[in-house]
Amino acid sequence: MSQYLVAIHHPDDYDPFAEEDPAMERDIDILNEEMVAAGIRIFVGGLQPVSRARSLRTQPDGTVLVAEGPFLPTRDHVGGFWVLEVASLDEALAWGRKAAIACRAPVEVRPFY
């Protein structure tokens, strides 16, 4: 069995209180229940808005600079994720498809080493 990250991507201005209606919340709950029942969900977590992120960068003198905001200035960011333990990439992609449908958002599936 291998572990995979299934990450949901949201635009920077994503507001879950405005965008996530009861039907979407229900679909995500059902997906989580399916993952638990299948015994493949290791961890799940939603992230606060990218405006709450802090980036840390090592400076030439060895100090670490902490800055407000995301590490990369992009239009999209990871809004939440699952860590799944499944038999194959194909199985991880099948769960990723379900996540994209339930979350109504782009999904990235990536294996761990």
Automatic annotation (TrEMBL):
Q: Gene3D superfamilies, alphabetically?
A: Dimeric alpha+beta barrel (3.30.70.1060)
Task: Cite the YCII-related domain residue spans from the record.
Answer: 9-100
Q: Which Pfam families match?
A: YCII (PF03795)
Similarity section: Belongs to the YciI family.
What name has this protein been given in UniProt? Answer: YCII-related domain-containing protein
Q: Which organism is it from?
A: Metarhizobium album
